[in-house]
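[stage:ingest] chain + small molecule (threonylcarbamoyladenylate)
[stage:ingest] validated
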Amino acid sequence: MYKVFIENREVNFRNKQEELNAEHVIYVNSNCSFENELVGLIRETPEDKIVTLVCDSKEELWNNLVKSCKFIQAAGGIVQCENEYLFIERNGMWDIPKGKLESGESIEVAAQREIEEECGISGLEINHKICSTYHTYFFKNKWCLKETHWFHFDYSGSKKTVCQQEEGITKASWFTKNEFVEIESRTFQSIRFVLKSFQETIENSSEIDRAIQLLNQGECIAIPTETVYGLAANALSTQAVAKIFTLKNRPQTNPLIVHCGTIEQVKEFVSEFPPMARKLANQFWPGPLTLLLPKNDKIPYQITAGSDRVGVRVPNHPLTLELLQKLTFPVAAPSANKYGSISPTRAEHVKIQFGDQVPLILDGGECAVGIESTIVGFEGDKVIVYRLGQITVEQIERVCLTTVYVQNEAGEIIVAPGMVKHHYAPKTTLKIVGDFAQIELTDQTGIILFNEKMISGIPAENQLILCEKNDLEEASRKLYDAFYQLDKLNLAVIYMKEFPSYGIGKSLNDRIHRAGLKG
Ligand code: TXA
Ligand code: MG
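[stage:predict] done
[stage:export] tokens:
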């Protein structure tokens, strides 16, 4: 069991966030758990700023990290605390972005001023620069490297001080794998962990190249997103988009979501980006949110099923983000399942749905969210949620500072046809019950449990427990996989109970009720 402490530097790195235009900056420090090459506890970090991730393997740890952050900084150094120095460490690194320098001030003087202020000491003197080392960053799906300078200070009171100093990400440079290996030999051991992950990224890149080639040729491929896998094609090519509808058996009246690599790219395809939508995009993209915005002429009506609004989203999956950022067009992508059936949350689910009908399934592992994105639209000042997802109504209200309406039942006009009642369904009949005590127990009965113990009288292999603790996010990740697994057993019926009705639990209940209704 590996344990990692990640500090979300929303407070300390505010300047850097602005500089990077990133919402979350997660800093991974290697200072403490150096021996096992994993990241360690950051000292002096307030408890509420530390996110704890507990993982069974380094791979899992890495996947979780990459999925959860837009920007990772992996410190390449361990600080030697020599006895004669007082080491002042503020969360591992002294960060003085260029913007903080007063006019005409050198970085050394700025560092001195900062440390004196923060530590409440005076008379600090810079002695000399000790060395330069390197820090690696994972930002916008690329690794980059930044030179970091360490300074040696004399504190003229009684003790001496060594402090790290860095110059800001403006000096970062992109680098190749070979350059990285060379740098690694010059710098610290802890980078090996990062290097391993970097190699994995390299291995994936040949698959991304294939994906680009196929999409350029107008093919339809399966891509991972953080919500569910999508069936993707060039959104600007009516022929490519037509293939999506055919493969899925999807009615032409059901519009498709357009996926982009950045907010800037989204702006190229909408005629308006109202302030409220902008706020939501800044807060939640890349992430499991689809916005319905007025389309411009570049988006064919075929995508929107004749509507003047287009569904747009920037998904948060490293492979797909890299893919989207390398393409010269956005991709239309509905969930990669036959019309009406369960969305896939693993590459193997796509295989079950389409076999060899798609030339490539880009395997990005298990989807981190596991249910489809929250869909939000606007009518004048009114903010409306058309499909519930991981991002909750409450979260949207906190950003929009207004009441948010939920309109996810199909009325006279189906605004988002995902509202149609019977949807997201396994092949096996699904029944939602209040209590398992009432159900008929046979060898043909399947049960999906949230976090309860298995019940007796039904074979254990027919029962799936979604999570051990009261963890709705985990249940969300596992729900569709449970449908796929039980479908393989050809049972007569699957029973489940409602989830606790808060947070994503409400969205899960929405899905199971739609899945549970037949015809
Ligand atoms: O999480 C997701 O959104 C996934 C991944 C692949 O991004 N995609 C997804 O797409 O769930 P799909 O097509 O399975 O569901 C999209 C829903 C449909 O109910 C569709 O009718 C609605 O969004 N939708 C898309 N564009 C729309 C538009 N212009 N106006 C109204 N509804 C729209
Ligand atoms: Mg779908």
